Amino acid sequence: MRISVDEEKCCGAGQCVMIAPEVFDQRDEDGIVVLLDTEPGAEQAPAVRESAEVCPAAAIHLSEEG
Which domain does 20 fall in, by range? Predict the structure, then answer.
């Protein structure tokens, strides 16, 4: 799984950080998503998928290549 984020779309809700803190963080100054791991292991996949599904701005994009 490969992850990308669209910082322009991100609204800083922080749902992704709460669900998958090993993969996502937020910038201190504005709360915009910071991607910590572009290719997380299989053990993180369920949390990453949930993060993408609940993102209110649809800023998280997943690719199942690999």
Answer: 2-63
